[in-house]
Structures are given as C-alpha cells and as structure tokens.
C-alpha cells in the first residue's frame, strides 16, 4: 500500500513518517465514504482521544509542577476538546486529504469542526498504531506544546464569574454568540459575544472560540463592575 503524494505531504506536515500506511489511510476515511462493514476512522478516533488525553495531562503537569487539580482540569479540557483538535487539523490542512462521501463533501465537510476534530484524534491513533506511544507523544507535543504553555490558567474563571453575577441578579446564564470570523487558509480569529438577558454584552476575540468566549466574559465583567 502506497500513500498518494498529497497524503505524503500531509504526513510530513504532521511530523511522522509512516512505516505502515494502513492506519493513516483508515484515519483519513470518514464514515460517509464507506458502506456498512467497511473500515473507517471511528474506532481510531476513540483510541486517539485517550492517547491525546494522557499526553496532554503529562505535559500540563510538567509545565506547572505546583498547580492543583482544580487549575489543571479546566486547562486540560480546553486543550483536548474537539475545537482545539479541529484547530490543529486546520493548521496542517487535514481536511484537504480526508476521504468523504458525496453528501458530506457537498455540505462542506472538509471545514466542519466536529468532523476535523474527530479526524485529528484518529490520526493521532494512527501514529500510535504505527510506531507506539513515544511517536504519538512526539507528534502531539509538536502541535500542542505551544498551546500548553499559553493556555489560560484562569480560563474557567471569567465565564464562571459572569454566570454567578447573572444568577445573583435573577438572570439566566449568559449566552455566547459568534459575531465574526476573520482570516483564511488555516489562521482564524473568532469574535465571540457574551450576552446577558438584560441586553448587556461584550465581545472578545482569540484564535479559539472557547478562549474568545473567556475574553468576552472578562470584558463584560469589567464593564459591569466598572
């Protein structure tokens, strides 16, 4: 089994040379491309999610040896969620090499966040199946370590504080709305609005939607408390 030129280029962007290309081809095969009984990337997605979680947990503990579990957990969830996986997938143009069914292609599947996030987890599992845990760790650290170092230590706090502010005044929890998305290719800036039922709102921007939500919550709290 030989990889096509575009998949070879993807493997180079990923940072792993596959001895056995079969796991990678399976990881790039969406269920919409297959019929019942044929292999696709769903089982690999399940495995890759676990491998990613272990490596990120390890990296977070290394990065901040004294942080308690209460600080590590929200950082962990930001780093392993589908949104972050999809962001990494976009950076290495994973969508360009996915094998999709016709309907999924017509509906813009190569750009769908959930689909890209799932495929990224499957690709991690493919590396693990091909060369073991150390190889998978190396790939994950290559694409996630910068995020580990920059993840918001108090990412959860602003949104929690805003929700508590609203509840204390008899308001429902704030909602978060995508107001604008800038950029093309693999670099995006998301503008997210934190909106209260009383009409108050503020906008935050970041390269990840979740972090943009935190920025919006922080901005709105500043406005409310100012």
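^ Assign residues to that structure.
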């Amino acid at each position: 089994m030989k990889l096509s030129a575009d998949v070879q280029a993807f493997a180079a962007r990923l940072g792993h040379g596959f001895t056995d290309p079969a796991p990678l081809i399976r990881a790039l095969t969406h269920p919409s491309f297959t019929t019942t009984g044929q292999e696709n990337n769903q089982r690999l997605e399940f495995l890759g999610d676990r491998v990613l979680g272990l490596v990120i947990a390890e990296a977070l503990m290394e990065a901040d040896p004294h942080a308690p579990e209460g600080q590590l957990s929200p950082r962990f969830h930001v780093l392993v969620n589908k949104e972050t996986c999809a962001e990494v997938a976009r950076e290495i143009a994973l969508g360009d090499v996915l094998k999709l069914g016709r309907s999924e292609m017509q509906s813009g599947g190569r750009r769908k966040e959930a689909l890209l996030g799932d495929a990224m987890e499957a690709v991690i599992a493919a590396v693990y199946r091909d060369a073991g845990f150390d190889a998978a760790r190396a790939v994950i650290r290559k694409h996630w370590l910068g995020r580990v170092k920059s993840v918001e230590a108090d990412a959860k706090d602003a949104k929690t504080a805003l929700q508590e502010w609203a509840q204390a005044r008899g308001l429902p929890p704030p909602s978060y709305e995508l107001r604008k998305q800038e950029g093309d290719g693999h670099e995006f800036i998301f503008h997210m609005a934190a909106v209260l039922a009383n009409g108050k709102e503020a906008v935050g921007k970041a390269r990840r939607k979740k972090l943009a939500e935190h920025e919006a919550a922080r901005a709105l709290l500043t406005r409310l408390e100012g």
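Residues 1 and 22 are 7 Å apart (CA to CA).
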